[in-house]
């Protein structure tokens, strides 16, 4: 019998050593004297009274005491020799509680504690049939826990990888137009530099002859009053892409002027908005797709009194920046044109918006040396034309050299990127310094000995 009404707590086992362990364990758990290692016959009267009160029967103990007793000694019901620690007993007690509650046991408040336990005690075969006491190695086996943690860690890694790929894809889609525009600008800048190096290799007389012929052409335009101004089809209209008609391409004299190779006559530079485009003859769709074009019928961009050169370029292309930021220019900004190794500076003094068929502001003004950049506006609508015009100024004062003027937006983006990088690095460093540190696993032999 496991739980006698009165008296001492006995276990019927064949092993005397195991009985001695049971008495020793019982004394340590219930006598109140943690350091006492003697048997039952050496205990004091207080210990006997305490033991008698704790094991006097179900009618004199609370539900918690009964549950604790069943939890602590459930391993000995069938003579199992479990010399285990409190951690195993606690885990085994929880398992017993759950199993008993599932079978109508004592843990429910609406049920009696006394009868189910007595039924299990009086009928040990019921406990054997309903409960299977797991071996100690199964209780301490953590392979299932490790497997669940590894599965959760794998899911975490998969989610992190998918989210990272989505973020990278979103950033790539957002930066794709800017990347294509930057690549196009770099390619056009390379072409302009190549033309400049080609001209530098020419004899001085060749470049001088080119400039002399260009000045003569400009004087003829001023004298004859610009009889033809522009192409037969507006280069910014929807009909331009379907039309192959071009007056400039049929004028052999015009095509032979300022030809530095591949139809390029020079380079237009606007450092304020990061523009550096090669200038070609005419404003056909084929020309404007690969750079800036010189408006046929206007003065060639070589400077001089009574000249007005008009340079056109597209705006809002997906793969090229061109004149997209031309509306950012205002009065006082500077524009530059490089032709045959000679750089001319112009200061913006007028910004206008005109109708597509209005050419009054493109005419030559007597005595002025003027440069006008033209593109379509509003952005994406293209119903009007934006004109940014400036007059010739000397260099380096008041107009600085082109290499000394920088794009404010580029500088701001670089500064922002630098600040973001420094901020992320600072947050990472602070989190590593203030966060919990992972301790390395150490072997038991590595710890200092106690005592």
Overall pLDDT metric: 73
With helices defined by DSSP (H or I, 4 residues minimum), what is the helix count? 13
How many strand units? 8
Number of domains: 2
What would the principal axes of the Cα set say about the shape? elongated
Q: Uncertain runs with pLDDT below 50, 5 residues or more?
A: 1-61, 73-85, 102-124, 126-131
Radius of gyration, in Å, reads: 47 Å
CATH class category name of the largest domain: Mainly Beta
Largest sheet: 8 strands, mixed, barrel
Fraction of residues in H or I helices: 40-55%
Range of strand content? 5-15%
Description:
- With about 450 residues, the protein is α+β, with helices and mostly antiparallel strands.
- It folds into two domains: about 130 residues, no CATH class; about 230 residues, Sortase, Chain: A.
- The protein has 13 helices and eight strands.
- The protein has an eight-stranded mixed beta barrel with strand order 1-2-3-4-7-8-6-5.
- Helix 5 packs across helix 6.
- It is elongated, with a radius of gyration of 47 Å.
What labels would you give this structure?
8 strands; 2 domains; eight-stranded mixed barrel; disordered N terminus; Sortase, Chain: A; single chain; 42% helix; alpha+beta; 14% strand; 451 residues
Structure summary:
This protein has 451 residues and is α+β, with helices and mostly antiparallel strands. It has helices spanning 16-30, 45-54, 63-73, 86-102, 114-122, 124-130, 136-139, 143-200, 204-224, 247-250, 252-255, 285-288, 408-434; strands at 264-270, 275-281, 292-294, 307-312, 334-339, 342-354, 369-377, 384-393.
